[in-house]
Amino acid sequence: MSMRWRLLGSFVLVILIALGTVWVVARYTTEQEVQTFLGHGGQVGLENLADSLVSYYSENQTWEGIESEFRESQGRGQGPRFGTNALGGDHILTDADGNVLISSDSTEVGTQLLEEQLGSAISLEESGEIVGYLIPEGGVPELPDNFEELLIERVNRASLLAALISGGIAIILALVLSTLILRPIRALSQAAQKMSEGDLTQRVKIKGSGEIGALGGNFNQMAHSLQDAEFRRMALTADIAHELRNPLAIQRAHLEAMQDGILPTNQENLTLIADQNQQLTHLVEDLRMLALAEAGELGLNKRMVDLTELCQETIQRFEPQANQKKIKIIGDCGNQSLYAVADKERLQQIYDNLMQNGLRYTPEEGWLKLSLQQQGKQAVFTFHNNGPKINEEALPHLFERFFRADKARDRASGGTGLGLAIARQLAEAHGGKLTVENHPSTGVIFKLVLPL
Prior knowledge:
Number of helices: 11
Helix content: 40-55%
Strand order of the largest sheet: 6-8-9-11-10
Mean pLDDT: 79
Radius of gyration: 51 Å
Strand content: 5-15%
Shape: rod-shaped
Largest sheet: 5 strands, mixed
CATH topology of the domain at 303-451: Heat Shock Protein 90
CATH class of the domain at 303-451: Alpha Beta
Structural class: alpha+beta
């Protein structure tokens, strides 16, 4: 469930519970307060008794039988017909003319009460007409002058109590719901704080879907990427130091030997030092180019390039090197010219790297196939040899800096270890992509895709 719906559901739940609590508590407490207040005036139950009497008259359209009905009610223990305030010896019932029907004083039964006595009685009305009078014990008590104020005060007190109870329940419920909702956010905040202190191993466990689940997944992915980047940074530093140390050590050893007279200062020894210096220069240039490409600051001299012609030129340039290793280059560049807006020199750098890499790992008397095909609005170069396959675990890392699938090979036979990383960056700088996969039968396939 998304955060929006979780919050909305929480708010609706709190509101409904608060309103329900107010309604229940206010109804109950108000009823109790009003009944208690009126009870102090001696009127508790009189309205129910009057309603019961009117209901009896409405059913029978006469007061005849009210005495027997009342006696049966008393015999049944003052049943529900007249409730707990059934006409006993304390109340008087008369008809519309004031003739006494029921009274605790049997001598009053049948007599007619005066208008003054009926003036303080409770009128019993049916269909808008007075059908009788009910005189409670001691008469109808007079209400105090400030009756409205007292009643409103009690109702307000009941409403305040209901508001306090419902507010307390709503606050408790809001605290519980907010704790449940904010728990994963708190976990993310704590993990982020530890990451800011340098602990890149932090991960969060967030269940469910929605925004919080996605945020937790993104955080874990970010933490993994940062940890991987830190590992790569340290590995890169170590690799650069290693790559620089060997040529420098060789140069220093030869220079010191020549200074001490152990080695003669001749063309052969100077050439060896120059070769090591050239290797250092090449490594530094590769690092500079890779850094510029990764930063998106590598300048490209783009113009219209015939990819078919470039494919044929690449095959011709590498044929002598292939013949030395008795490797056959199979070219399939097509007959139709395919054009792309690109930097020809940079594209040639990609092809050279892939061709050198392919020839390096192709066995003698093997073959290397270079093909060019058009797929929609894209040109696809395929470099495929019949050399050994690459370990599946190593394939995702093949374009990383200084990564070597074959650890046994040294830099002299395998270059600087930056060629494939540079090739991919150059391909992406042209809006294309460079991928690698093992062929189902034999060898490895590199695919360079460029927009036409």
